[in-house]
Design brief:
This protein is mainly alpha-helical. Helix content is about 75%, strand content about 0%.
């Protein structure tokens, strides 16, 4: 009976999801507009041909290396600030902390208040934060660093608090019942248990910070994003591909380094986390779960940690951010003026229909983007997994020949290269490039096409940009 109810509930949610996708396609005008733009084929061909002969001149390689260093510096600074704030905020935003401080129900309201406040910085994109801080600090690197640190700090706070809440509490309760102070009990019980999960997520957030640093280059922060924008505007595809390759290399290096660090530390994979959670709830038998073997001391970890400690002050110095502006009188005056101009919000009756329409459009773009990303992720996950087509994999024959092994490895490397490219380039750059190459930018600037056609094509550009990045 329970199983039948679960099946029916899943079927119902599946139908709801399909209905939401259909409504989103209808609101996008897919069944009323022309999707393909023949005018962009020539530019797309030139763009693809340029990928095999990028600009490798000494002068431009110097520009690309310098821009990559700036992007890395912004990513490191943003990650350090967001993870530091997220670690402290994660404790304060966790339900288990307030249950330890206030065993009665009054701690629940404090927890709900903090979690509700986290929704505000998380809801605003880092690009919007960057534009906001430019109005306050000007074209100072501080604007880009804070634009990464604030929304990511709220995201890290939320995820860290959920990790702490899902960590077994028995050792914590033993210490609390023995009269140990909550902070001390956390430090000796809950945090050590959750440490590897926290480190694993922090490394992932570092990868995201690099993409955000590239995004903020669009608004003048410098780095690879700024150089990509200049190359796109001037249609210099050879230079554009050089910058793309630099971005791929930077993200690939961070991805491989963080993955190797997690393996060295013995950080659990997502499968291990799901199995351990199922073991704790009784849904998985003990024989189905094999915990990871704890690794002994390794000097490589100390070397990586030492390099990381040295890299942080170097990156802060490289950006040249003026943190004294945070407490200057001019900053306080500008914040007061902006706050006074934005509060209370203007909900004029004539603006409500437009606000409602734009909200539905944003929701439709999100639904279609996650559908594209989900479908693409499912298709590409099989050739990108090492335990499917390689020798001894689930979908490989027992005796693979040399040609089959080469084909399997080639398929694996090409697929992972596509995924690396898809997630290395931020969504705004995907969108801007798609607009330039498809000819939508000309339609947007000119008047040869009706607004409905321009709106639909730009809508699709946004959907594809978000979907590709989330693969």
């Amino acid at each position: 009976m329970v199983h039948s109810w679960l099946v029916n509930r899943r079927l119902l949610w599946g139908l709801v999801a399909l209905g939401a996708i259909a409504v989103s396609l209808q609101s996008a005008g897919l069944f009323e507009q022309t999707v393909f733009n023949p005018g962009g084929v020539n530019q797309l061909g030139q763009f693809l041909i340029a990928s095999v002969h990028p600009d490798l001149s000494r002068e431009f390689l110097t520009v690309a290396v310098r821009a990559a260093w700036v992007t890395l510096a912004y990513g490191v600074c943003g990650t350090v600030l967001s993870v530091g704030a997220g670690f402290i905020g994660g404790i304060l935003a966790s339900k288990v902390w307030w249950a330890a401080v206030f065993p009665r129900t009054q701690g629940r309201w404090l927890w709900l208040t903090i979690r509700a406040m986290l929704a505000i910085p998380r809801a605003i994109h880092e690009l919007i934060w960057g534009l906001f801080f430019i109005n306050i600090f000007g074209l100072d690197p501080l604007a880009a660093i804070l634009a990464i640190a604030i929304p990511y700090g709220a995201i890290v706070t939320k995820v860290f608090s959920e990790i702490l809440d899902e960590t077994p509490r028995q050792p914590l309760l033993v210490l609390l019942n023995s009269g140990v102070a909550p902070l001390t009990a956390f430090s000796y019980s809950l945090i050590p248990q959750a440490w590897l999960n926290l480190v694993s997520y922090a490394s992932y957030r570092f990868e995201c910070s690099l993409r955000s640093a590239a995004v903020l280059g669009i608004i003048g922060a410098g780095g690879l994003g700024y150089e990509i924008l200049l190359s796109l505007q001037s249609l210099r595809y050879e230079q554009l591909w050089t910058l793309f390759y630099a971005l791929f290399f930077l993200n690939g290096l961070v991805d491989l380094s963080s993955a190797g660090l997690r393996r060295r530390l013995g950080s659990p994979s997502r499968l291990d986390l799901n199995l351990s959670k199922g073991l704790a709830t009784g849904r998985v038998a003990k024989t189905d779960f094999k915990p990871r073997r704890s690794l002994r001391f390794n000097p490589v970890l100390w070397l990586v940690g030492f390099i990381g400690v040295l890299l942080v002050p170097v990156c802060f110095r490289l950006t040249g951010a003026d943190f004294s502006k945070l407490w200057s009188g001019q900053t306080l005056t500008l914040l007061t003026n902006i706050t006074g101009a934005t509060w209370p919000p203007n909900f004029a009756p004539e603006q409500l229909p437009q606000l409602f329409s734009l909200s539905l459009q944003t929701l439709a773009m999100s639904i279609l983007a996650i559908a594209v990303a989900g479908l693409g992720g499912i298709i590409l996950s099989f050739p990108a997994a090492s335990n499917f087509f390689l020798a001894g994999g689930l979908l490989s024959s027992g005796g693979q020949g040399f040609g089959d092994r080469v084909l399997a490895w080639g398929l694996l490397l090409v697929t992972r290269g596509i995924l690396l490219m898809a997630r290395s380039i931020p969504a705004p750059i995907w969108a801007f490039g798609s607009v330039c190459l498809s000819g939508s930018l000309d339609c947007y600037r000119g008047c040869e096409s009706p607004w409905g056609f321009r709106q639909f094509r730009l809508f699709l550009v946004g959907v594809m940009a978000e979907g590709i990045e989330n693969l």
